[in-house]
Every structure is written in structure tokens, then in C-alpha cells.
């Protein structure tokens, strides 16, 4: 086996976004593209000589090939060991857990999350640090810097490692340890939750349906929900990961998991249903006759987490990304918990979790998690819900109703406008940014604007600043509009408009979201001028 140093040139556009580098699969497969980015990671972290890394991905098209390239590059650069999930599979939270449990120096996760997979679809690579969390902004900036001056990369000339067999293999001087992707994660879950109580709930006839969306969570959900907790076979559907996610879009929301929504709204609804995304870090929670919004889910979990053994001591604090609804703020205020508001991106929760300032965090984009790992965690959220329901023996719908009665309700929706011309979308936001100072005091569709600004964040732990994290407009009556461009898309620009209104009027608590938000939606239209500027009359996705 020989180490080779390959001459290359910087490749444009290798700037990590909200969560690592996401591009079309064909882009990643182009000569030197993956290799350049991986070498840039090595350079930015001070090399991998003598280090131990974790490697795995969500099984999408090119996952297996990319894993072999990364192994050969790690070996060529002197890594001591790489711990790989069998078949190069690891869910994102399981990878985060392995990085932490095995006290490694970090890891590489191959995933484009909820984006579709396949030769014509999306691929992604991200680096997670020794704390198990996504690289913070200063490190992603250094990685980008390296991509812009890279002249060569090192790779071993070698045969593929057989990743289908558990155990140790060697690649040059490096050990490749192939592990069961599920085992360590499943035992972590068994430590956090009252499996006895959940098992008893299921044994009492409580029915569940988990849609793994042909993605990586399938094997985890089968092992935990069916094998360990006794849910009947068939409770987990679409459980075998496939390179193109069965031709679907592994995004657990009412659009892409419509079958599940139809099921819970129909006569054969299970008591509890859930779905997760491509790499297993997102979740959607449903119950008979109800879909729980991610923001409400975070608030319910914050209010009830103490019912699970892992959180029985209470929470240190909670955090949400800025565009996430402020439902959890009401729980924090009522329970005297510290509350943090961060920019979009799980990486921003890392310092707060490491410093012990928060125990639970979550985002409107279907992500919730805790200090058990440093990623959001889809199956964890499902198990915490089940643990809570096992303790209260309430239905999902009654849990929500009770929550709204106690804390009030933040009606909430996100409208996405996809594949916009990037220049046009940027200009539209620039224009709105310029108008922000004039907005307070104006009355739009009968509501008076109280504040308008651009969100920036100063990390309370290390003082680092992140500017330009979303435009927000708040109304005197408590309603809010937030606009920002997505940092995870791979085609043109995606504009996200987040809409929120609050009520504690008992007569309005159960109003459907569309009706409750009609006024805020009209105000957003008028303020942003989206119709006029883009010709779009409706969002592509409403979540
Ligand atoms: C990633 C990030 C999340 C973020 C989401 C959407 O999730 O980890 O923090 O909320 O993207 O980001 P954006 O609005 O910029 O598209 P995932 O599940 O895609 O890794």
C-alpha cells in the first residue's frame, strides 16, 4: 500500500452552510471534489496524525464510495484509528454518541439530511468535533479557507476495506474498527428512558407507527421500538435504508410524510405516530387526529421531561433557534428556566450544552435534542414523548390541549419558497433590510409593528459573534414574522418565512393554524412584497 500525494487546485464554492457542505451528488463525485474538501478538514483541524475518528453516513447514494475514499485519506495522513458503522452507516445522533462515548477526536458524517438522495440528488459531508457536535463557525471558516488554497492531498493506494464485517481491519498503519451502528445508541436510550413503563404502555394496547422513510433510522427504530419495547412487527415501516430513500424525500413534515398524516387523520389511526429524516436527527410527532408542530413539541418536552428518568433532576435551561416559535419561552418563564435564543444551526447549541447552561434545545425545522449527544435526535424525541405518555396515560391530542390551556398557544407556520433566483432573493432581503428602521410604528393589515431588526448573536460562552441571522418583525399584539435564506439548499435560493401569533383566549386555542395565521400571512405578503417581486403566489412547502 502506497501513499500518494495528488496535485490539485482549489475548487470554488466549498463553503460549508448551516450544516456542513451540501451539494449535488454529481458535484461531489467530480474529480478531486470530495478529496479536496476532506483534505481541507484535515488541514483545518491540525492534521489527523495519531488521531481517532468516527465515520458513517445515512446510506444515501455515494455514501459507500465516499467512506472508502475518506478511510484511505485518513490512513495516508497518519490517523491511528477510524471507527466506522457497519456498511458505513451511522445516524447523525449515533455518530455524535460514538464520538463522545469513545472519546475520539471527532468524526465525519456523510449526509444531506432531509434532502433527497441519488445520482441526480444531494450529498453532504460534515465534520463534528470531539464534543460530538457540528464544527462551530470559526472552524467551518478555517475549512473554507483551506479549500481556497489547497494544492495537494494525500491518499493511500489500497483495496476497499470490507465494511460489512464487524471487527477490526487494517488499512496501512491505521486500524479500521467496524461497529454495530445501533448497539451503543440503543443502550444510551435505555439509560435515559423508562423502558419498563413504555413497554407496559405498548403492552396495554397503545398502538404506534414509525415511518423511517427508507432512511437510516430504520434499523434503530426496529431494534428499539419493536425488539426492545415490544411494539408489534410492522409498527416500523419503510425500515430498510435505501440509497435513494425509496425515491422519496426523507423530510418528516406534513408534505413529505403525507401518508402518515392521512393515517392519523383516518379511522385506523394509531395512538402515536412519528417519522424521522434521512440521517435520523429530525422528527415529526403525530397522534390520533393531530400533527404536533416541532415548536409545540419542544415546549411540551420542556414542560414534561422530568417524567423521564434521564431528566428527573429537572432542566438546567432550554434553548431554541430564533425562528422557532416562542412556545418554549412560556414554559421557561413559568418554570423559572434559563432560555437562550440562537441562530439557526445545531452548532450554535454546542457551547450552551457543553457549559451545562441548557439541557434541552430545539428548532422549528423538526429538530429536538438534549445534552445526551451534541446533535438533534429524532428517535430520542420519539422516546421522550412515549415516556411522557407512559407516565401520564394521556393521548397526544389531550397532552397538547392541556399544554395550550396552561401556557397559551403560539400558532406557527413556516412558508418555504424554493429554487428562487439567488440574486433576486438576495435583493429582496437587502431591500427589506434597508426598510427595517422605518417599519416600527407602521400599521400593516390592521396590526401595528413594534420592532424590526436583523438578528445577531453573541455566544454567551465564548463571546463569538454571528451577524445577519435573519430579519424579524414583531407586532404590538405579539405576532411575529421572520425571514431568512436557507443554508442547506443546493439549488438557487430558498426563502423561509416564519409566521407566528399567540393566543390565550380559550375560544381561539383550537383554531386551525391557517385560520389563526391568516392576518399575519397577509401582513408578511405586504411587507416583503414576495408576490410582486417573484411572481410566486403560494409557498412550495408549508410546515
Ligand atoms: C440543519 C441544521 C439545523 C437547521 C436546518 C435548516 O438541519 O442542523 O439547525 O435548522 O438545517 O437550516 P436552513 O433553514 O438553513 O435550511 P439538518 O437536519 O438539515 O442537518
TrEMBL record:
Catalytic activity: alpha-D-glucose 1-phosphate = alpha-D-glucose 6-phosphate
Swiss-Prot/TrEMBL cofactor(s): Mg(2+)
Pfam family, one: PGM1_C_vert_fung
Keywords: Isomerase, Magnesium, Metal-binding, Phosphoprotein
GO molecular function: magnesium ion binding; phosphoglucomutase activity
CC annotations in GO: cytosol
GO biological process terms held by the UniProt record: carbohydrate metabolic process
Region (Disordered), start-end ranges: 1-22
Protein name: phosphoglucomutase (alpha-D-glucose-1,6-bisphosphate-dependent)
Source organism of this protein record: Rhodovulum strictum
High-level lineage: Bacteria, Pseudomonadati, Pseudomonadota, Alphaproteobacteria, Rhodobacterales
